Here is the input.
Amino acid sequence: MEITGVNTKAYTSASAAVEEDEELQETKEEQTKEYGVSVKEKEEKDTTEFSSSDYDEADVEEKAENYLKNLLFAGGLTDASAAALQNYLNTFDVAKFIKDYGPFSSTSEISAAMYAAVGSLIKQQEDE
Here is the structure.
């Protein structure tokens, strides 16, 4: 029985990769013997770093208030919707907002989070 369709390139390259790893390990061992110090590889770690350009609480509060004021100013909202948005604006907790949706590094991120937070409160008056 003959096997056809076998890709020997994949096997060869996998074999070459194993040989390359072995050579690298041997080189490290030689350096350890020569210098008396082991060579350590840098470990990759998953880290999250926040940019220094992240908005602080005062900036987020200002942008959020502007977003809500623009909605209220534009008009066309039902009375209940306008009252709900005004109440949200009056009781806005910036620290909780940042905890739930942040950190923010742009105004567009804040606007998207504000829409997520108050989108259900926005009701337009129907034209008659």
